[in-house]
Design brief:
Elements: H1 2-8, H2 11-35, H3 40-85, E1 109-111, E2 117-120, E3 133-134, H4 137-142, E4 146-147, H5 154-157
Parallel strand pairs: 2-4
Antiparallel strand pairs: 1-2, 1-3
Helix pairs in contact: 2-3
C-alpha cells in the first residue's frame, strides 16, 4: 500500500522536497561559514554562495510544494467527480445519449425542521428520515424554504 502511494506522488512534490532539503543544507553551511569568520568582508562569500541561494531554494520549495499539493488535490477531485457522474452503459439509448429519469416523483412535500429546503417525499435526502415533516403552507408561501436541487419539487408545485 505504501509503495503504491509513493509511486503516485506528483513529481512536482518530489522537486519541492528536494529544493527544501538543498536550501536547508545551503543555509546551514552558510551560517556555519559566517559564524567562523570574524570580519564582514570574509563573511560575504558565504552569504553570496550559500545563504542567499539557500533562501531562494526555500522559497522555490514552498512554491513547488503548494503547487504540487493543489495539483494533487485537483486530480483527486476530478477522479471523484468522474466516479460520481459515471453511468452504466446499459442506460444509454441508441443515439449514445444517456436517458435519465428524475430521482423523485412524489407529490407530497416534506421538510426537515430547521432546514432551508423542501423536498418530495421520495427525495433521497429525506427518504426514510423520521424527523422529516410535511411542509407548512405558510412557510412555503413566505419563501422561507427553497426547492431541493436534487428532486426539484418546484416543477410539480407550479
Amino acid at each position: 500500500m505504501r509503495t503504491a502511494r509513493l509511486r503516485s506522488v506528483h513529481p512536482v512534490l518530489w522537486a519541492g522536497w528536494a529544493a527544501l532539503a538543498a536550501g536547508a543544507v545551503l543555509c546551514v553551511i552558510g551560517w556555519y561559514g559566517v559564524s567562523g569568520e570574524r570580519y564582514a568582508e570574509r563573511q560575504l562569500p558565504y552569504l553570496a554562495s550559500c545563504t542567499i541561494p539557500g533562501a531562494a531554494l526555500l522559497v522555490a520549495a514552498a512554491v513547488l510544494l503548494t503547487h504540487g499539493r493543489t495539483t494533487a488535490a485537483a486530480a483527486r477531485v476530478d477522479e471523484l467527480y468522474g466516479l460520481l457522474v459515471t453511468a452504466d452503459p446499459a442506460d444509454a439509448d441508441d443515439s449514445g445519449l444517456l436517458v435519465t429519469a428524475p430521482l423523485a416523483v412524489s407529490g407530497d412535500l416534506l421538510m426537515v425542521p430547521g432546514g432551508t429546503l423542501f423536498h418530495r417525499a421520495d427525495c433521497p435526502l429525506v427518504a426514510g428520515k423520521a424527523e422529516a415533516v410535511p411542509v407548512d403552507a405558510k412557510l412555503l408561501a413566505s419563501g422561507e424554504l427553497g426547492p431541493c436541487p436534487i428532486c426539484e419539487p418546484a416543477a410539480e408545485t407550479d
